[in-house]
Hints:
Elements: E1 3-4, H1 5-9, E2 21-22, H2 28-37, E3 47-48, H3 55-63, E4 68-69, H4 72-77, H5 79-90
Amino acid sequence: NTIRYQVVFNKPSPFGKKGGGVSGGPAKRRAMEYNKELPKWVSVPLIFGCGVENPLDVGRYQDMGGSAVSICSLAIRRPRTARFVVEQFNG
């Protein structure tokens, strides 16, 4: 769910050699690209996530092969939507 700062923003991390990662909205596109390929290489249950904002995002991650989807930011920012997502996909 966290992607290296340099990969997302195409410039060195402001934390220097310590690196740093980006998650949520800014990393969503990269996470989707990566997660789409991952099931081709492994055969274990996968938890996908990064930047989940709505039920559509959950469906997209499931369609890519995710066994589960993390909705961390969504749960903090929009708890009602998070509850709806949990009810819809676990009902």
